[in-house]
Design brief:
By secondary structure, this protein is mostly beta strands. Helix content is 1%, strand content 40%.
Amino acid sequence: MHSHTIAALALSTSMLLAGCGGGGSSAPPPVSSPAPSPSPSPTPSPTPTSSTSCSGLDFLDISQASANQTAGAGFAASNAIDDDLGSGSLWSTSVVPAALTLDLGESHLIKEVGIAWHLGDQRTSNFSLEVSDDGTTFTALQSSTQSAGGTLSFERYDVTDTPARFVRITGNSTSDGGNFAIAEAALFGCSFGTQTAVTVQPFDTSVFGLDPNATPGANFDLLSWALDTPATDPSDGFAQRTQDRDLAAFQDEFFFTANDGGMVFRSTIDGATTSANSSFTRSELREMLRQGDRSISTQGVNRNNWLLGYQPDPGVQVGGRGGLLTGTLAINNVTSSGTDFHIGRMVFGQIHASSDEPIRLYYRKYPENDRGYVYFAHEIRGGDDIYYMVVGPQFDDRDRQPEDRNDPLNGIALNEVFSYEISNVGARIDVIIRRGDRDGEIIGHNFVDMAAENSGYDTVDEWNYFKAGTYTQNNTGDPTDFDQTTFYRLENTHN
């Protein structure tokens, strides 16, 4: 909702009256009177016009969806805006052309359209886009277009920035001749009105059924993980690592159970790092697909690690191909001391390769702000990072980390429960952020196409693993300052 302040102006006017008269016995000779000066015409007030520009590339809240065709009661238009990208919730129609109309409730500046296609990794769909302010008269936004056919996540279509309340997706055909179907639709842009801060909704964490008196390893299945913390391993002076089976009973000051049963990761600025090349401390899980079989090496192309979806077949058995990491968590604390570049910045999810990082998922909150934003870095293999915003301010310089000090009104507050998904299918890595649990409202999405970026991971000698927890990105502040996250769900799956 938007609030507006209307100022009432009191206006007063005054009338100027003029009079004349004359006398005498004889009429004076006529004198020509000067022509009266015309009264000036009032300057017309300009006709008010609505703004046609705004900043931001937010995941917009669609209030309603309607369609002129459906394949039946189970395939209603509302399925396309229910935050479910699965095949069990679709808008579908066997009659084409058919139109799905999305209503934002009021005019926004539309910058991108996102569509998660049914069977989107197996077939292509032909469609067109139109927009309207009144829901009756539509104009073309993008003519006949074909989906890429490579993902079940959102395909993003960059369109000319256009003010509109309604967006209509008209389906024309599918490459396999089956029903035209959309799993989820999304619109990206910004609001012309005054943005209102998102209200954090209380979340009852008791629904997770976690035992506050148990160790993290008793509440969560950690057999496919190892833990690194800022504690020092006396054998080598680096971070302490606790392996798979040993995690069942393990906890310490950096890894423990919260009062509500959540799994807490705390990382202080002062502490041991994982190697001589590491600059920052962490309390973080490292994926170990060997499931406690320590005869398998932790490193290399083997059953402990997995391949990105577009890597060639290495000819040996591996832990999987592609993957999905999902977590439900709250970020409880971020550092507030140190240099301006470092404060409030931490990583809570990763895909790590042998030496580089296909994705690091960041949270950043400045001390003066109520909320933080979420973005990710994609490291070109053997090269530099490029950056993508997921929830927060729009930025266009992919070669540097975002440094926007404005409070992101659509962002995530400390102690707010939210969920994330990091998925790799083919050459894409997608990130989705939701409020609340893993079936909650989607509030952010972005992706990197590693083939398009020529990222270099499509080789037979590369190997990968997920990471989750708290990875501090500050080594300049008070040694006791810390980052902390509490996880309520954590799942890792691979094909």
